[in-house]
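thread: overnight batch results

M.L. [08:02]
morning all. the overnight job finished for the chain we discussed friday. pasting input first so we're all looking at the same thing
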Amino acid sequence: MLPIKLTTGNTTGITPPPPHLLFIRTAPTFSFSRIEYFSLEMTKAQRLRYQVYCLEKKFLDAASYPDGREYDEHDRHCLQIVAQDFDQEIIGTIRLISDSPAGFPFLSHCGGKLYPGLEYILGEKTAEVSRLVIDKRYRCFGTDKTKDQNQYPVILFGMFRQMYEASIQIGIRYWVAAMEPRLARMLRFYGFVFKPIGESTDYFGEVRPYIGDLRELETSRIWVESF
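M.L. [08:03]
and the structure it wrote out:
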């Protein structure tokens, strides 16, 4: 699986978390925001998803998206976050899918791999983290990274922080996700703790289902000052 402006002010309209929570100091060249479904930004986010999921990784058939946008029925039931660079180009996106009649997409791929007794997580206080995508110019692999690729953690955790603040605002307690174990380990290092709730499966590559309890994040005293 690939799967605000965070400077000195609060441009999100959301009350910042109290001081004991995790904070991320980001470069002033990036901004992070929630976007609406019927917006130009959503179209651009879907084009970035198409570039990565269909053309680069070939997880999805590009022929199924002739207009160059990757989208599905869950986009109407999600909270969409984007990262933008200094020129306001969208270079990262992630979505948080709320409980709806469409269900959680990870269950169609990981449902048979879940540990028993997890029914309590599937409800209105749960949302699924999905479609995490970052422009290839900023993705880092191995040790041979460019200056732009060194910004990968800044972009990743800027989007997660924005998503966390929005989740608290709308009453979400649990995040579920199908992700690579290495991504779960990276998120844990910076204070976003996800615990496995099932066995690995093939879902856009080998991934494992995880859950994160936002109340545990609220008690975390991990501070991230720089990258």
